[in-house]
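Predict the 3D structure for this chain.
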Amino acid sequence: EMRDKQAKQQSLEAPDAERKKQIAEDSAMLLKLATELKTEVDKTTKDTLSLSVVRKADEIEKLAHAVKGKK
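Done. Predicted structure below.
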């Protein structure tokens, strides 16, 4: 019975560890994209918003929603 409990605990920990790893990777990607977005925004004037800025912001939003869904 002790082995069954240990096996069950390990089977629960494996997906949890994978989820945490994925969240960490996605968070690192969010940071990278946010930094790139800031750099691009800093290059624009107050009257212009480049298409790449809009696309990058959209990409960040999608990734942020994906991370939130993994909680």
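The chain has a mean pLDDT of 83.
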